[in-house]
Recover the amino acids of this structure.
């Protein structure tokens, strides 16, 4: 069975990639679960793209890319809130516009840099095989923060997903919690883009959580199953990329998406555990 | 525990536009106000305003502890529609348990007495047997009882229930009315929105609304044929009192035995709101 372990024993960069992938799988499972339950997938995707110009600008002026990414995420969030509040357009139009605008801005900024093609590919699709222990350390910090916040805010977050009015009447500070939630999505996206890239991080947010939603009944178990799927995807994806010389980040995301479809199809073949809506009068 | 609701010159609505104005109310502990009117008459908007979900357009709406403490009274709110399509097949009992969360803060574990209150509320609504059923598998009436149990187990000072009897069968309706009696005995202030005259007749006070206050007072004074005609359009009476034909619901709301056979208004006769 050396085929299954050798890459991670022999190669230091594969070890780091595996550790980084596992850390990110945990953070994205937690945040992805909330995103999926809230029906905020499109916003998560937009955020992932929103960080791009921030990272690009940071590279250009020589500040840490994390700072730039957070700034990009903040601009994206602020833009969505402002457009939805001030115009009659629904938030999906605002998100869609900013999404494309930020992506284009990112590419324009990167095109000013000397090493255009290389850095663009890294930012969009990740450079998991080049991840450093320093990066892993701060990714681990993000994962811990996200897990703690989700544990602390699990009640209002579940109520807000089911019925925001109830959350308000129950006395939870819905606006503040909403802002914390958006912040959690933003820092997770920022922490993850090194591993799977700004374009593919969306897959890690949605695929494991989506698959977990099909087989679990509770918030906590959904997060744990999503994390397990993310970790398996990381391991399988890295292994495939090593043996078949494939792009590492993309292989990880592809594995996660494949697991989602396998679970969804298996669900379809099984007797339904939920009656259809006509059961309800 | 006691609470009070006081509204002075209250106008409620959305986006600066009042749906109903000129509401003056004073409710004390143990009193039940039924707000009656058609869909779009403003009764849900009034409940949302009392719940603090939307701001008054004009006037004041105070929901406070009657013992003089400045804290807002604890409020339990049952909304008119429930999200039944929630992604996770969350168990009915877990949904009811959410009613105890406000009492335990963000992370406090539910204690034995919380569990007892949940069991009591589920028993009162007759859903003890449904405890392990996922919410999404329940019928509309069962789902409504789960949400009612959630609102009840909160043990709030003020209960704001928007169409609590929607989808309930006769037996569940009786359970609900019994619960209303015990809630009032407990000293809570209850406000319900309904389009059911028979239910409103059980309340202490009735507010008849039709985009304005048509009548307000004890059921005997407020639920006159004239007021109901203004609110609903079509009213007939039988030996037991007025029977309303609500053109917006397309069926009569006389639920007692021996109700006269009545026909709703001709198609196309609709109030625009």
């Amino acid at each position: 069975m050396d085929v299954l372990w050798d890459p991670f024993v022999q190669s230091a960069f594969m070890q780091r990639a595996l550790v980084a992938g596992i850390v990110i799988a945990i953070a994205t499972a937690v945040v992805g679960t909330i995103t999926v339950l809230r029906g905020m997938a499109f916003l998560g995707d937009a955020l992932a793209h929103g960080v791009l110009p921030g990272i690009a600008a940071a590279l250009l002026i020589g500040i840490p890319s994390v700072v730039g990414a957070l700034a990009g995420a903040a601009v994206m969030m602020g833009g969505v809130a402002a457009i939805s509040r001030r115009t009659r357009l629904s938030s999906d139009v605002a998100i869609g516009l900013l999404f494309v605008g930020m992506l284009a801005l990112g590419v324009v900024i990167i095109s000013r840099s000397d090493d255009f093609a290389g850095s663009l590919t890294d930012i969009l699709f990740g450079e998991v095989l080049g991840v450093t222990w320093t990066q892993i350390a701060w990714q681990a910090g993000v994962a811990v923060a996200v897990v703690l916040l989700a544990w602390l805010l699990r009640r209002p977050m579940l109520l807000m997903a089911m019925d925001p009015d109830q959350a308000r009447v129950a006395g939870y500070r819905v606006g503040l919690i909403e802002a914390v939630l958006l912040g959690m999505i933003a820092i997770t996206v920022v922490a993850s883009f090194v591993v799977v890239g700004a374009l593919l991080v969306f897959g890690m947010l949605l695929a494991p959580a989506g698959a977990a939603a099909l087989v679990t009944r509770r918030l906590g178990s959904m997060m744990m199953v999503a994390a397990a799927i993310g970790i398996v995807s990381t391991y399988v994806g890295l292994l495939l990329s090593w043996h078949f010389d494939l792009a590492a980040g993309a292989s990880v995301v592809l594995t996660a998406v494949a697991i989602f479809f396998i679970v969804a199809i298996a669900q379809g073949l099984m007797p339904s555990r939920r009656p259809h809506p006509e059961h309800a009068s | 525990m006691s609470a009070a609701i006081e509204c002075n010159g209250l106008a409620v609505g959305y986006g600066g536009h009042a749906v109903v104005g000129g509401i003056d109310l004073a409710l004390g502990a143990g009193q039940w106000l039924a707000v009656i009117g058609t869909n779009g008459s403003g009764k849900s908007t009034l409940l949302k305003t009392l719940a603090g979900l939307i701001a008054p357009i004009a006037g004041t709406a105070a929901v406070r502890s009657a013992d003089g403490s400045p804290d807002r009274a604890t409020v339990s709110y049952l909304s008119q529609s429930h999200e039944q399509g929630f992604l996770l097949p969350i168990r009915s009992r877990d949904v009811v348990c959410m009613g105890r969360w406000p009492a335990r803060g963000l992370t406090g574990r539910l204690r034995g007495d919380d569990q007892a209150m949940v069991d009591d509320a589920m028993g009162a609504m007759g859903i003890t047997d449904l405890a392990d059923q996922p919410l999404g598998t329940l019928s509309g009436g069962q789902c409504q009882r789960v949400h009612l149990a959630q609102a009840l187990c909160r043990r709030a000072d003020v209960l704001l229930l928007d169409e609590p009897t929607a989808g309930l069968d006769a037996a569940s309706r009786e359970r609900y009315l019994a619960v209303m009696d015990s809630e009032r005995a407990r000293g809570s202030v209850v406000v319900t929105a309904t389009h059911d005259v028979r239910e409103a007749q059980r309340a202490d006070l009735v507010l008849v609304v039709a985009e304005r206050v048509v009548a307000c007072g004890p059921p005997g004074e407020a639920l006159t044929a004239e007021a109901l005609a203004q609110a609903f359009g079509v009213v007939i009476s039988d030996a037991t009192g007025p029977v309303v034909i609500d053109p917006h619901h397309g069926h009569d709301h006389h639920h007692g035995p021996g109700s006269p056979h009545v026909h709703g208004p001709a198609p196309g006769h609709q109030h625009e709101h």
About this structure: Chain A touches chain B at residues 36-37, 151-156, 158-159, 161-163, 165-166, 168-171, 213, 216-219, 222, 273-275, 277, 279-281 (CB under 8 Å). The first helix of chain A runs from residue 2 to 10.
